[in-house]
Amino acid sequence: MRFIQSFDGLQFLDTFAALLAAFVLGTLIGAERQYRQRTAGLRTNVLVALGAAAFVDLGGRVGGASESVRVISYVVSGIGFLGAGVIMKEGMNVRGLNTAATLWCSAAVGSAAGAGQLAEAVLLTFFILAGNTLLRPLVNAINRIPIDDRAGEATYEVSLISTPEAMPKLRDLLVQELEAAHYPVSDVEIFERGDDTVEIIATLVSTAVEPHEIEAVTRRLARQAGVANASWDGSTRE
User: Fold this and answer.
1) How far apart are CA 161 and CA 51, in angstroms?
2) Where is it mostly found (predicted)?
3) Helices vs. strands in the chain: H and E counts, helices first
4) What is the pLDDT of residues 58-83, one digit of tens each?
5) Of 199, 173, 171, 175, which Cα lies nearest the Cα of 186?
6) Residue 164 to residues 59, 141, 216, 222, 226: CA-CA distances in angstroms?
7) From CA 173, how far away is CA 218, in angstroms rounded?
8) Residues 6 or more apart whose Cβ sits within 8 Å of residue 214
9) What is the reported pLDDT for 6?
10) Contacts of range 93-100, beta carbons closer than 8 Å, 24 or more positions apart
């Protein structure tokens, strides 16, 4: 049997130590995620670390160090598909990026353990836990700082509600008014809001705006014939 011929007690113990380290360290990382009620919790992080360790260890035993490097490269790219599954987009917000990054780091811990770098795996686990716990108060403190709209990159939109008949004239007038106020338009979209109303939305080129200038533009547009409502909105993005 190939098992009897290929079995090596020392290599088996080495594999056991690598998988045990990946299991324990993945548990530490996953426990913190589970406590925070994240999408990828305890079991997911443990399995990612174990799988990475098993593949890297198997590659090293079968093909040597060069094959381990090849397997690690596949682990790095392959874990991206798993991470994409926990990322969710809700409107303008994206959730799950930190969880996906933690899964990626769990794979790195497993890869280090599988390659026999147990001390490095422990050190990496320490920094992962520090990033997810010790930095949390700093993140909360930064989030409480009021945002200066002029300092942040944001998307601004100006909206007109009008009749379908007046839409072509108002669309051109909207662009003219914004460009006259030195706010170039990157896109104009038309949406039907009913049988007798349409919405014209002009998206500005990413820039900082003066609220009173945009307010002045919307007030002028609101006085035009056929305009039911004129407004503007801005959303800051990372």
Assistant:
1) 55
2) membrane
3) 9, 6
4) 888 887 777 788 888 888 888 887 77
5) 175
6) 66, 48, 24, 16, 9
7) 11
8) 156, 158, 181, 183, 232
9) 67
10) 96/39, 98/38, 98/132, 99/33, 99/38, 99/39, 99/40, 100/40
Q: Is 6 helix (H, G, I), strand (E, B) or coil?
A: helix
181, with CB counted inside 10 A (0-12, 13-18, 19+), is middle
Q: Domains, the chain, ranges and CATH? A: 8-143 (no CATH), 154-236 (3.30.70.260)
Q: pLDDT digit string (tens) for 23-46? A: 999 999 999 888 888 777 899 999
Q: What mean pLDDT is predicted for residues 91-115?
A: 84
- Supply 17's token pair: 């130590």
Token pair for 220 = 């002028």
* DSSP category for residue 166: T
Beta bridge partners of 235: 155
pLDDT of residue 238: 42
State the pairing for strand pair 154-162/185-192: unpaired
Strand, helix or coil for residue 184: coil
* pLDDT over 90 at 50, yes or no: yes
124 within 8 A of 108, measured Cβ to Cβ: yes
Angle between helices 9-35 and 42-63 (to 10 degrees): 160
